Amino acid sequence: MTSRVGLRAAGTNGSDFKHRERVAPHYQMRQSEVRKLNLVHLLLWLLVAAQVTVSHFDLVSHDTVSMPYQWEYPYLLSVLPLLCSGLSLPKNNISYLVISMISAGLFSVAPLIYGGMEMFPVAQQLYRHGKAYRFIFGFSAVTVMYLIMVVAVQVHAWQLYYMKKLLDSWFDGTQEKKKK
């Protein structure tokens, strides 16, 4: 053993640090993937929040940014699983990660499913007749929102996948500690 003020322990040359415990690379990779997906989720949430805020407070005309669809309001609650996920990562808190996974289904995935069903008749009308009544910066609102939804579904699916893998690895680690 070495001390801060004394000599190095006998028989060592300072290169015997490789045996020390480290975080396994696959745990680090999963955490970094969850962090990256959380960042993309935050960007999507900011887009939806900006559209809701701008249209709600009449900051621009409704010709530029249309009124939000009903599914966008409950989707704003998807910031809660994002916060729980962010709180769970620094200290490997399993309970926050479980809360994040459950609330992601309720506040992220469920509004997207409802939104897909809510906007389907409008998309069908746009496809069949070429008529759009809502616009976002000159583009059909239903097209823009479906594009956001496609990205959001992929982000949330990957988030849930990596959070499940991370939860399994953390849970296995706590079970091994209890056995010792």
UniProtKB/TrEMBL annotation:
The yes or no answer to whether the keyword Transmembrane is present is yes
Q: Where in the cell is it found?
A: Endoplasmic reticulum membrane
Which first-to-last residue range defines the signal peptide?
A: none
Q: Name one GO cellular component term.
A: endoplasmic reticulum membrane
Recorded hits in Pfam families, A to Z, give: Jagunal
Identify the InterPro entries for this entry. Answer: Jagunal
Kindly list the biological process annotations in GO that this record carries.
endoplasmic reticulum organization; granulocyte colony-stimulating factor signaling pathway; vesicle-mediated transport
Please list every transmembrane segment annotated in the UniProt record, as residue ranges: 39-59, 96-115, 135-155
Sorted UniProt keywords = Endoplasmic reticulum, Membrane, Transmembrane, Transmembrane helix
Q: How does it sit in the membrane?
A: Multi-pass membrane protein
Family under the similarity heading? Belongs to the jagunal family.
Protein name per the record: Jagunal homolog 1
The source organism is Etheostoma spectabile (orangethroat darter)
